[in-house]
Design the sequence.
């Protein structure tokens, strides 16, 4: 008499990488938007909007034209300067530091990293999902701020229509800068114990110094490749234009894009490897 075959035990399949990343993204997005860092982010992106309001008010009230060495500068020139000084050289790297380094470090500090890692999902999916939440949180706050500055400043001696293509480029540059800086500091946050200090030293120390030095050291900074994509240029006969010319040693557009892509993909890969292989010891 043939024996009845026993049913095979069913094995539960683990969720895939993409599904796991989206679940972590959904979980992390609300936490980021309602965290104290959101207040900090609103204050940071509100500064250029406030300055744009002052510029527009002076123009509407019939105040004196903005001049540099008796050379009047119009709205597009002011906007280009604000994009470089406020957004690309301050807001983007600062948000990258404060958010990127915290993707894993905050979970370790709050002692919640073990709850994430005990779930049946890849550790790298935890990092990637939180990185996507960081991108959504920052992009949807920074880009509207840039739009407001553009609407307020460009009409000062300029016209909205001809300046619109530069605005589109600027929006893409901010998103790209946030993505690359976020990847760099996500890697630092996943690998080091005190990532915020290292990140601040990189942005306000290393990048500031090497950008002012001749030679190849500036090629080891994100700002060097980011400035090569900026479409704005100040007049060459002004002090601002002279300063910009010093910092304007750039590579071709295609090479800048290639290196920015390499930085983002490479540092995200290293961050995923660090999260996967590192043993996180929670301090008591």
Sequence:
């Amino acid at each position: 008499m043939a024996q009845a075959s026993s049913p095979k035990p069913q094995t539960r399949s683990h969720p895939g990488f993409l599904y796991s990343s989206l679940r972590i993204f959904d979980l992390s997005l609300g936490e980021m938007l309602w965290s104290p860092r959101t207040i900090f982010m609103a204050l940071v992106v509100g500064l250029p909007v406030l300055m744009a309001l002052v510029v527009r008010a002076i123009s509407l009230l019939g105040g004196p034209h903005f001049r540099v060495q008796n050379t009047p500068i119009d709205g597009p020139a002011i906007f280009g300067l604000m994009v470089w000084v406020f957004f690309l050289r301050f807001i983007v790297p600062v948000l990258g530091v404060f958010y990127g380094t915290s993707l894993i470090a905050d979970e370790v500090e709050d002692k919640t990293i073990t709850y994430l890692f005990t779930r049946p999902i890849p550790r790298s999916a935890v990092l990637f999902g939180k990185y996507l939440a960081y991108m959504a949180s920052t992009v949807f706050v920074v880009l509207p701020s840039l739009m407001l500055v553009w609407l307020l400043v460009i009409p000062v001696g300029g016209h909205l229509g001809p300046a619109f293509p530069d605005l589109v480029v600027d929006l893409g540059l901010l998103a790209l800068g946030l993505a690359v800086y976020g990847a760099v500091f996500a890697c630092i946050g996943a690998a080091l114990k005190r990532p915020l200090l290292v990140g601040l030293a990189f942005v306000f120390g290393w990048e500031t110094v090497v950008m002012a030095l001749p030679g190849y050291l500036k090629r080891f900074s994100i700002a060097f490749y980011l400035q090569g994509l900026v479409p704005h240029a100040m007049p060459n006969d002004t002090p601002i234009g002279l300063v910009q010319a010093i910092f304007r040693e750039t590579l071709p557009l295609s090479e800048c894009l290639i290196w920015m892509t390499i930085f983002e993909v490479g540092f995200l890969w290293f961050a995923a490897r660090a999260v996967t292989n590192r043993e996180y010891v929670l301090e008591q």
Observations:
- The two ends are 63 Å apart (CA to CA).
- Residues 30 and 133 are 9 Å apart (CA to CA).
- DSSP finds eleven helices and two strands in the chain.
